[in-house]
What we know:
Rossmann fold, 7 helices, binds adenosine-5'-diphosphate
Amino acid sequence: MVLQVEGLGKDVISGTNATGGDRILTILHEIDFNVQAGEAVAIVGASGSGKSTLLGLLAGLDLPTRGRVQLAGHDLATLDEDGRAALRGRELGFVFQSFHLLAALTALENVMLPLELLGSQFEPDPRTVAEAMLARVGLADRLGHYPKHLSGGEQQRVALARAFAVSPRLLLADEPTGNLDAATGQQVIDLMFEMNAEQGTTLILVTHDELLARRCGRAIRLAAGRLV
Ligand SMILES: Nc1ncnc2c1ncn2[C@@H]1O[C@H](COP(=O)(O)OP(=O)(O)O)[C@@H](O)[C@H]1O
Ligand SMILES: [Mg+2]
């Protein structure tokens, strides 16, 4: 099991109530599900239903109010922030709607960064691995480009190369095609499913895109912070 989610809930403080206390807003209620190695799972639901909050909890970027997340056999609540960061570095790739590349780094340097952070385990070396991943996503001739000189689709392919370079067990993507036109989005979707097939990477994809949701083996639907 790559991921086990039990009774997961998240409250936030949202202003003050009539008696001057904190007003508590529950944005996720009692979420339970498991994901097996190699699955592709879509998380769907209206805007504001809690999809991004859930993804942040799965990655250990945010902490739950209730319940727990086990990622690759590790209970995130038992790890401190450094421990969660180390686990993310080894096991997790993350792709965002708005690409999140580092503007001061070239495409090649963006992809090399997580490899260098993990140390010397990459054969023959991070640069060669990063070059091969960029070639894999069709960007062999864009290695020295900075993000501002790449199209949206090219930036998202760099982000995919960065996410997959460390051969993560799990890829989390938050509306990865949300800022792309249909044809470019399709290329990005195809690449994610090719990596799923080639590397056995488990995919959890938040999406509004019905085509993308249908390509996943199953969908988890959220409405107002609950599984439906
Ligand atoms: N830090 C926060 N403080 C207050 N409200 C939040 C916070 N984060 C998210 N929310 C609210 O929680 C709900 C779910 O947000 P989000 O997870 O971003 O939804 P989605 O990704 O499905 O659009 C929204 O109503 C949002 O306004
Ligand atoms: Mg969102």
